[in-house]
Amino acid sequence: MTSQGTRLAGKVAVISGASRGMGLSHTRAFLDQGARVVAFDLNEDAGQTLAEEYGVDRVVFLRGDVRTAADWSHAVQTGVERFGAINVLVNNAGVSPLQRLESVTEADYRRVIDINQVGTFLGMRAVIPAMRESGGGSIVNIASSAALVGFADIFSYVASKWAVRGMTKAAALELVEYGIRVNAVCPGDTDTPMIRENAKTPSASMPPAEDLPFGRWARPEEVSAAAVFLASDESSYMSGTEVVVDGAFTAQ
Ligand SMILES: NC(=O)c1ccc[n+]([C@@H]2O[C@H](COP(=O)([O-])OP(=O)(O)OC[C@H]3O[C@@H](n4cnc5c(N)ncnc54)[C@H](O)[C@@H]3O)[C@@H](O)[C@H]2O)c1
């Protein structure tokens, strides 16, 4: 468990890709700060554990695909029916296969764009009516340091994450009239199953952890801290921007 508090007390959050890695960490951090959470993922691995740990009155875990508008509607509807509102969305689900421009297939490129970019768009669009009903809300899009600079060997991923950052700014301007803030978190290399998988193959996109300015990857909870801040009222005058949690990587 992360530290306990009340920074998100009274808030209901939808979090995608919550079965493992950072999505699971965000879900725990939100629950630990008093939020109630509708979590979803392609698989429900973490669902039972979270329900046992926090109680079914605090967290609902659904099976869902961010590429499917109906799954987003189901998540939003579940939040409204079970917890009475939707105040926060964390668009976290994503994939990051190693792919080079000269050899990536059209199908593989479209898959990454579909999950990382279209999934983020569908999530933002889905929560707008419920957030308007609540008088506002906070959308947190998980982008990446790959939304700030280019990286070799993860071509589709870089394209999708720059799109997430751009959508964040465009959505912030459109949704300000409803009191909905939209921000991005840009993590650097973070210790999750995704990066452990990628680290098995030497690639230009991932220097060894000891060569990073901090000499290590981020811990998932160090990124969740930024998500909690952006979801909370502490960031009430922040919208259309990004919080970079990359241990000075892009400062180089
Ligand atoms: N780990 C890093 O170094 C790093 C760095 C920057 C940004 N990110 C971003 O953070 C987010 C989380 O990454 P992670 O490292 O925890 O990854 P991860 O692979 O460990 O976990 C991702 C989760 O998303 C789920 N998911 C994948 N496709 C889905 C879909 N179509 N619908 C619903 N759920 C789906 C997976 O089942 C998995 O549980 C991603 O958006 C990723 O791009 C990760």
Automatic annotation (TrEMBL):
Record-listed E.C. numbers: 1.1.1.47
Enzyme class, first EC level, given as a word: oxidoreductase
One GO MF term attached to the UniProt entry: glucose 1-dehydrogenase [NAD(P)+] activity
Keyword Oxidoreductase: yes
Domain of life: Bacteria
Pfam hit, one: adh_short_C2
InterPro entries xrefs: NAD(P)-bd_dom_sf, Sc_DH/Rdtase_CS, SDR_fam
Keywords attached to this entry: Oxidoreductase
UniProt similarity note: Belongs to the short-chain dehydrogenases/reductases (SDR) family.
PANTHER family noted in UniProt: DEHYDROGENASES, SHORT CHAIN, ESTRADIOL 17-BETA-DEHYDROGENASE 8-RELATED
NCBIfam families with a match to the protein in the record: PRK07231.1
Protein name: Glucose 1-dehydrogenase
Provenance organism: Streptomyces endocoffeicus
